[in-house]
Amino acid sequence: MEVGQCDHLLLQRDRAFLSVVFDRPQVRNAMNLEMVHELERVMKAVAASDEIRAVILRGAHGHFCAGGDVKDMVQAQERQQQDPQSDPFYALNRAFGRLLCLVDALPQTVICVLEGSVLGGGFGLACVSDVAICLANAKFGLPETGLGIPPAQIAPFVVRRIGLTQARYLALVGPWFQGDEALRLGLVHRVATDADGLKKELDQVLTALASRGPKANAVTKQLMHRVGSKPINDLLDDAAHAFSEAIRGPEGREGTLAFAQKRKPKWAL
What we know:
Blueprint: E1 9-14, E2 17-22, H1 33-47, E3 54-59, H2 70-82, H3 88-104, E4 109-114, E5 117-119, H4 121-127, E6 131-135, E7 139-141, H5 155-162, H6 164-173, H7 179-185, E8 190-192, H8 195-210, H9 214-225, H10 232-248, H11 250-260
Parallel strand pairs: 2-3, 3-4, 4-6, 5-7, 6-8
Antiparallel strand pairs: 1-2
């Protein structure tokens, strides 16, 4: 899997699992446009890979991601002053939205390991994960409206993750909260009290994923994403076709045979 040089990301492969670590600790891993483009390249390479089953997103030095880098916004302001007809703010904001869509649609399982600051864009990435685990003292929030700007690209994913009522409160009032409240809202799935507990939770998720059919997981994600966008009977027809194709395919045949023979399927890690 070729992704080119990454200056703001650390990549580490372990079997079929790829760890992507945000590495801008001097700004609590806030995302600049270069980092967004690097992550976009990595996600596109992962999406095209049959070797990667899961992607683990986390931040270096105790923080996940503090949102967007304010320096990018200052530079955008300077570019607009030089060219009043341009709209660099649109381009900057929309680039992150494209990244969220890419992560959201990834065939592989996306796991977010959340520590320290989980703000703005970091909050948005958590909302497009399949599995989110966090430290109890992680700090979550949507600070954008306190800066006089909307959480434009993030808001739709927040609504889908935790519902409109709670999303309105978090975006408009802007409270900060920690792991237990993130669990109550449905933003995360598991909360750990310390680093050892966080590692244990992640290891349990990876162990479970090692025994899941990667193609079956990809098809399942695709079906779930289409709920609400297609009439239910049409969706169930598509699901039945997908089921038939899967059970007749090599992964499904081996999985059902292994179950009958009381052994692990050959594709299990």
